[in-house]
Design brief:
257 residues; alpha/beta
Length: 257
């Protein structure tokens, strides 16, 4: 793919914490306007990759470009292009939903902060709760507000690190809809998750991170081809992403024994 059509380029990425090598040469590209899902177990290195790509952590080796800018030598330009939403909603519970948005807009020196806040509240289905304290919001509403706050300034790329962590099924579905809406609007979404059904539902491209490297990547259909054909019982059933993940990671572990 042409480099101009890539939002993120990662090649040979390495990172160690003292004697523990977390990333052992990670390679992947992310197309603009797509939803890219990075899958991996706890400790696989997903958050380390996100921290490097968002300029919060320096790599030991490799090259990383976000929105065409080098993460190491041009961190300020990278930060102008991105937004990061962590595993837990970073909202002020004492303030109302609208006050949270206005505060962030003012901190980012966005003109017409009130108008921007009102537009985002409407876009994310929070207009009716705009003047309620966030402490009264459900988990799904808080996460929607958190994502809305991250969009102030119109970032071209948004990083969502475990965005539905701790949410109930209804809250997860709400966030899924928001993520799909973002991509439809042209925003590139980089998603890390442990929930395989989440990646199966949302992602245009999936990469599986295991023991510090990307061991497989592709569309869901690409990954389905890596496991045996669907068994014919009463009906033909395609393997789920969970079955694909376990087959790939399991076979990799066996090969290393």
């Amino acid at each position: 793919m042409d480099a101009q059509n890539l939002a993120i380029q990662v090649h040979g990425l390495q990172k160690s914490y003292r004697k523990l090598q977390v990333l052992k040469g990670v390679d992947f590209d992310v197309a603009r306007g797509s939803i890219f899902a990075l899958l991996g177990s706890n400790g696989a290195g997903k958050t380390t990759i996100v921290r490097i790509l968002t300029t919060l952590l320096k790599p030991d080796a490799g090259t990383t470009h976000v929105d065409g800018f080098d993460v190491v030598s041009q961190p300020a330009r990278v930060r102008e292009s991105i937004s990061l939403t962590g595993q837990f909603a970073a909202v002020d519970e004492i303030l109302t939903g609208r006050e949270n948005l206005v505060m962030i807009a003012q901190l980012r020196h966005v003109k017409s902060a009130g108008t921007v806040a009102d537009d985002l509240l409407e876009r994310f289905g929070l207009a009716d709760a705009a003047r309620r304290r966030v402490s009264t919001y459900s988990g799904g509403m808080r996460r929607r507000l958190d994502i809305a706050m991250s969009l102030i300034g119109d970032p071209r790329i948004i990083f969502l690190d475990e965005p539905t962590n701790g949410l109930d099924p209804e809250g997860r579905i709400e966030v899924w809809q928001m993520v799909q809406n973002l991509a439809e609007g042209g925003t590139t979404v980089f998603l890390t998750t442990q929930y395989l059904d989440e990646a199966e539902k949302l992602a245009d491209w999936i990469a599986i991170l295991h023991e510090g490297t990307i061991i497989e990547s592709g569309t869901l259909e690409d990954l389905r081809k890596l496991v045996p054909p669907a068994k014919i019982e009463y009906v033909e059933r395609q393997p789920s992403l969970e079955e694909i993940f376990l087959a790939i990671v399991g076979s990799d572990k066996k090969a290393q024994r």
